[in-house]
């Protein structure tokens, strides 16, 4: 079976973690959650200047939670059990000892943007489109990524995006400061210029700056708020609005 998460280290001192389900728009299955958890635990101690998180293929960064694995007929307790491990993944990404870049090489929806919000920097593909669509699914962000979004952009913009749940382009994301750079090539290697200023720094510098960044966040409070967010979302899981929205996706996709 094809590995659903790939890891590759580069001579320049960085590494790339890739969600590898291009035929499913890199949606996060339960098995991906498991593999991400293992990789993140392992690379904690690696000597990396920075880590890139991306998706396979050219269409999608990540379509959020796999609607088959996550959105079954679950009650609030069951929903919490399936959502919580991915919250831990996001917390691990946030607190890695080196900077992280979400290389958003295509569309992102829902939890895909939560993953991006866990990263320190976000670079997005010019042609991509992006939406915190949870609002349209009768739920809220379920992996703690709403809390993280408030850390990354102005609270008013975060609030508005979550409420409106609209699909935005690169220009709109730039305007609210969600992304720092625009990707124009198809592969990371082709767009290496975007990384030059990161590659030129030493491992010691990068880890020191990451440490400083983390000192600006109250991590205990962050963890607690992320957990509250998962619990709140779990309660919405049982709603008719949510069940109806998921059904519609499967009907639209001929399932
Ligand atoms: C549970 C976590 C929760 C959170 O806490 O935040 C969420 O993440 S909620 C958000 C869940 N995600 C979505 O609602 C997005 C659903 N997908 C789409 O809207 C579209 O697929 C797309 C991402 C806009 C791409 O559209 P398009 O280019 O038209 O491709 P297809 O729709 O034909 O998709 C191709 C293929 O991929 C499968 N797919 C896509 N997204 C998911 C998904 N989230 N879960 C499972 N499968 C997904 C889709 O079913 C197609 O498969 P096949 O029909 O087998 O070809």
Automatic annotation (TrEMBL):
Enzyme Commission number, as recorded:
4.1.1.94
| Leading EC class | lyase
A GO MF annotation of the entry reads: methyl/ethyl malonyl-CoA decarboxylase activity
Q: Which UniProt keywords apply?
A: Cytoplasm, Lyase
What are its GO cellular component terms?
Answer: cytosol
Instruction: Tell me which stretches of the chain form a coiled coil.
Output: none
> Which CDD domains is this protein grouped with?
crotonase-like
Reactions listed under catalytic activity: (S)-methylmalonyl-CoA + H(+) = propanoyl-CoA + CO2; (2S)-ethylmalonyl-CoA + H(+) = butanoyl-CoA + CO2; (2R)-ethylmalonyl-CoA + H(+) = butanoyl-CoA + CO2
Look up the record and give one Gene Ontology term from the biological process aspect: fatty acid beta-oxidation
Pfam families hit by this protein = ECH_1
Matching entries from PROSITE patterns are given as:
ENOYL_COA_HYDRATASE
Does Cytoplasm count among this protein's keywords? yes
Q: Which superkingdom, per the lineage? A: Bacteria
Entry-linked Gene3D superfamilies: 2-enoyl-CoA Hydratase, Chain A, domain 1
State the compartments where it is located: Cytoplasm, Cytosol
What InterPro entries does its record include? Answer: ClpP/crotonase-like_dom_sf (IPR029045), Enoyl-CoA_hyd/isom_CS (IPR018376), Enoyl-CoA_hydra/iso (IPR001753)
Q: What does this protein do?
A: Decarboxylates ethylmalonyl-CoA, a potentially toxic metabolite, to form butyryl-CoA, suggesting it might be involved in metabolite proofreading. Acts preferentially on (S)-ethylmalonyl-CoA but also has some activity on the (R)-isomer. Also has methylmalonyl-CoA decarboxylase activity at lower level.
Q: Which family does it belong to?
A: Belongs to the enoyl-CoA hydratase/isomerase family.
Q: What protein name does the entry list? A: Ethylmalonyl-CoA decarboxylase
Protein's organism:
Tenuibacillus multivorans
The lineage, from the top, is: Bacteria, Bacillati, Bacillota, Bacilli, Bacillales
């Amino acid at each position: 079976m094809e590995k659903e998460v790939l890891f590759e280290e580069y001579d320049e001192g960085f590494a790339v973690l890739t969600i590898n389900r291009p035929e499913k728009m890199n949606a996060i299955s339960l098995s991906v959650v498991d593999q991400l958890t293992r990789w993140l635990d392992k690379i904690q101690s690696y000597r990396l200047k920075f880590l890139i998180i991306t998706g396979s293929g050219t269409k999608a960064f990540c379509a959020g939670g796999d609607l088959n694995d996550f959105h079954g007929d679950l009650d609030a307790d069951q929903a919490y059990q399936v959502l919580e491990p991915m919250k831990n993944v996001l917390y691990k990404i946030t607190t890695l000892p080196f900077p992280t870049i979400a290389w958003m090489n295509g569309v992102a929806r829902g939890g895909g943007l939560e993953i991006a919000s866990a990263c320190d920097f976000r670079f997005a593909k010019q042609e991509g489109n992006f939406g915190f669509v949870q609002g349209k699914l009768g739920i809220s962000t379920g992996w703690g990524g709403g809390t993280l979004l408030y850390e990354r952009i102005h609270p008013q913009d975060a609030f508005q995006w979550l409420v409106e749940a609209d699909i935005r382009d690169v220009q709109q994301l730039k305007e609210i400061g969600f992304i720092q750079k625009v990707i124009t090539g198809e592969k990371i290697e082709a767009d290496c210029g975007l990384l030059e200023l990161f590659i030129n720094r030493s491992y010691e510098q990068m880890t020191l700056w990451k440490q400083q960044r983390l000192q600006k966040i109250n991590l205990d409070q962050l963890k607690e708020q992320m957990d509250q967010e998962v619990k709140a979302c779990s309660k919405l899981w049982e709603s008719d609005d949510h069940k109806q929205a998921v059904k519609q996706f499967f009907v639209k996709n001929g399932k």
